[in-house]
Structure formats: C-alpha cells, structure tokens
Design goal:
alpha/beta, 6 helices, 39% helix, 19% strand
C-alpha cells in the first residue's frame, strides 16, 4: 500500500501507468484496485494532512493558482442532476440550473516560511481563493497577514481574510 501511494502522490506515477508496469511483471493490479487500496488507508494520514495545512497556513508567503480538472465523481453527479432537471423543467419553471457552479479545479497552494516549502493540492468545485480562505482559516491569530502571490484573477483572493497581495502578471514574466 505504501509503495502504491508513494508512486502516485510523491513520484506522480498515475495508477494506469503502474497498472501497465505491474502487468508487464505478470502481476494483475488494475488502477481501480490501486485506488481502493489507497482509499482504504487514507483516513490514517488525515492528521498529517491537517498538520501540513496548519503549517502552510502559518507561512510567510503563499502562492496560489488553479488549473481545470475532470473529476469523474463530480461529473457523474452533475449528469444525474442534469437528467433530473431535464425531466422536471417545464416552460413555467423559473429554476435556473445554469446558475450553479459547474467548474472543477485543482488549486495549488505553495507556502514558504522558516526555510520550508509546503505544497498543497486541493481538487473540487472551489476555486483558488476559496481554497486559500479555507487554508488560512487554520492560521495562528497572532501572526501578521501573509504575502500572497497570485495572478490578477479576482477568484484567487481569499474573501474577507487579509493578505498582503502581490499579484504577478504572467504576460510580463521573463521581461523583468
């Protein structure tokens, strides 16, 4: 179990690539089985994950950004909701199904402080600012606001939580 998790989450080896490698060695280990093995043990590392969030929240500088992602479970939920909506919407209906959030993102948050770098990756329907707000909710109250590095999108901001914003513009990187 540890090796499967280390290959996936430390070395970035996708489950399907590990499946093909194991298959070549004569060991049947489907990607779905690998996921089941890792998921069954995941709750044991939740305290370590929460400690990483706490330490990242207390960093001096935080970097955050989003990239889109496809999460099959969320896509299936949305498809089921859309099917129900199609069957129940009438011409008189005032419900606006398109107003619900449809995007899925993986937010990368890198926090630096005390000579350490912590990288968190959070995937779901929340965007970078919402995820950063959740992380900074773990911040010690006696610390000053962190410096936040992000691009200029408004959805990168952590709402009412205070940061010292230092936006970077990708268009100008490499010029200065």
């Amino acid at each position: 179990m540890i090796m499967i998790a280390m290959l996936k989450y430390s070395m970035g080896v996708p489950f399907n690539r590990e499946e093909k490698f194991q298959e070549g060695m004569g060991i049947p280990l489907p990607a779905s089985t690998q996921w089941d093995i890792v998921e069954a043990k995941a709750e044991k590392i939740v305290p370590a994950f929460e400690e990483l969030i706490r330490q990242a929240a207390n960093g001096e500088v935080v970097f955050n950004d989003d990239t889109t992602v496809k999460i099959l479970e969320l896509m299936a939920e949305r498809a089921a909701e859309d099917a129900v909506t199609e069957n129940t919407v009438t011409e008189d209906s005032t419900s606006d199904a398109t107003s619900e959030r449809r995007g899925m993102y993986t937010t990368g948050i890198v926090s630096t402080g005390d000579g350490h770098k912590i990288a968190l990756f959070l995937s779901g329907r929340q965007h970078a600012g919402e995820n950063l707000k959740d992380v900074l909710g773990w911040r010690a109250k006696d610390l000053p606001p962190p410096i936040q590095m992000c691009d200029a999108l408004s959805r990168n901001l952590p709402g009412k939580l205070q940061t010292i914003l230092s936006s970077r513009f990708a268009h100008f990187e490499g010029i200065f």
